[in-house]
Design a protein that fits this description.
CATH class of the largest domain: Alpha Beta
CATH topology of the largest domain: D-Maltodextrin-Binding Protein, domain 2
CATH superfamily of the largest domain: Periplasmic binding protein-like II
Number of domains: 2
CATH architecture of the largest domain: 3-Layer(aba) Sandwich
Number of helices: 16
């Protein structure tokens, strides 16, 4: 385990990137006061696990650096660390536990804020200017149970799976409402020599997407107290086994080849090129897909997990959010950056470039077509809030489903591992 953590830390250092201007290699993590009219020097450490969006973050950071110099005469150098999603959670936990916290770090609003807040890692941001700009529908996702706002959200999500609208339109297909209808769609695609699903499982977080979709659908139809009972060690994933594996098996048996050799970025490029008609993925990959093929028309639809139409719903979630470390020695500048994320002028272009949904009153751009697709389902009452599944469990299911796809373990092996992971989480977080 120690070797694994050490390897992860080395990987993190290897991907550490410097962004911004006026970088001072000799500056430490604290603000350096200066005399007279000289600029104060600050080195700000950011940790955001979205390397595919690096160029947009670089530009935004450079603009922030210039604003700090112009407005406050502070020379800011920014160390931007962008590990992959598979490694980020473990790296961050190690950094926080070893008192080497980044000044600002990304975390999942639903899955991670409760745990990180309880551990005392998150600065209280309740009184910061950005809070008043958040939409009423978004603010609860970054608010603790005792009413503290502890992060600025970046991504709000309405998702299920992605589908190629041209392929569907050419064949007269519409998104299916049941698993039986999905099987018919699959057969129609195969009859027309089109691969139904893009598979890209090299990174474990991708196959784990089936878990919140299956759990969310079941919790909102047949098993409403599933999360509550799992938190009390009274439930089991065996209760939603068929919801997970019936559709997952259908996807895997009708998808592209060598899934465990294909990363999500390559999957996005393949989907953009029309290599498959559907992809178990969320609209957070819109920017990458459109970069590969600006002309593609894709939609978002809810994934059927059984033949109950009421269970076919859109997952609503707030995911990537930025928090300030409680122990940051550069809190003034860190708070300035957090507020700059929702700056009245800069935020609109930044969120548009990332292809993120509007989340604040300062966002005036139109919603994207795929957002409107999902919103139509939401308006019909066909949606649920992303279930609060511990991140440790999601990490476990990702690895388990990679092994399951490769034929190395059984469905029951996956279920046993998930139950064990949740019980371990409960022990630590009582």
């Amino acid at each position: 385990m120690r070797k694994r953590v050490k390897s992860m830390l080395i990987t993190a250092l290897a991907v550490t990137l410097l962004a911004g201007c006026g970088s001072n290699e000799g500056s430490n993590s604290e603000s350096e006061g200066t005399s007279g009219g000289e600029a104060k020097s600050v080195k700000l450490k950011l940790f955001i696990a979205q390397p595919r969006l690096k160029e947009h973050y670089d530009k935004f950071i450079n603009d922030f650096v210039a604003k700090q110099k112009a407005d406050k005469n502070i020379e800011v150098s920014v160390q931007l660390e962008m590990p992959t999603a598979d490694n980020a959670a473990q790296i961050l936990k190690t950094r926080l536990a070893s008192n080497d916290a980044p000044d600002i770090f990304a975390l999942h609003a639903i899955n991670e804020i409760p745990t990180y807040y309880k551990a005392g890692y998150l600065e209280d941001l309740t009184d910061q200017p950005f809070v008043g700009k958040l939409l009423d529908s978004v603010k609860p996702a970054v608010t603790t149970t005792d009413g503290k706002v502890v992060a600025v959200p970046l991504e709000t999500l309405s998702w299920g799976y992605l589908y190629n609208k041209k392929i569907f339109g050419d064949l007269g297909l519409t998104p299916p409402a049941t698993l039986t209808e999905m099987k018919a769609v699959v057969e129609k695609l195969k009859d027309n020599k089109i691969t139904p699903f893009e598979l890209a499982y090299k990174e474990a977080w991708v196959p784990q997407l089936i878990l919140p979709l299956a759990a969310g659908a079941m919790i909102n139809t047949e098993n409403p107290d599933f999360i509550e009972r799992m938190n009390k060690d009274e439930g089991s994933f065996s209760e939603i086994k068929s919801a997970m594996f019936d559709v997952f098996d259908l996807i895997n048996s009708n998808g592209t080849e060598r899934a465990t050799e294909v990363g999500a970025d390559d999957g996005a490029a393949a989907f953009a090129a029309g290599k498959a008609a559907m992809w178990l993925q969320g609209p957070w990959y819109a920017e990458t897909i459109l970069k590969s093929n600006p002309d593609i028309e894709f939609g978002v639809a809810p994934l059927p997990i059984n033949d109950n139409e009421k269970a076919t719903m859109i997952n609503l979630s707030a995911s990537t959010s930025l928090a300030v470390s409680k122990t940051s020695k550069n809190k003034e500048v860190a708070l300035d950056f957090i507020n700059y994320v929702l700056d009245d002028q800069a935020s609109n272009d930044f969120f548009q470039a990332l292809k993120f949904n509007p989340i604040a009153t300062v966002h005036t751009y139109d919603s994207y077509p795929w957002v409107n697709d999902a919103t139509d389902y939401v308006k019909e009452g066909k949606s649920y809030q992303d279930p609060a599944i511990p991140q440790a469990v999601k990490d476990e299911v990702g690895k388990g489903l990679q092994s399951y796809y490769a034929g190395q373990i059984s469905q029951d092996d996956v279920i046993t591992a998930l139950d064990k992971a949740w019980k371990s989480f409960n022990k630590v977080n009582k």
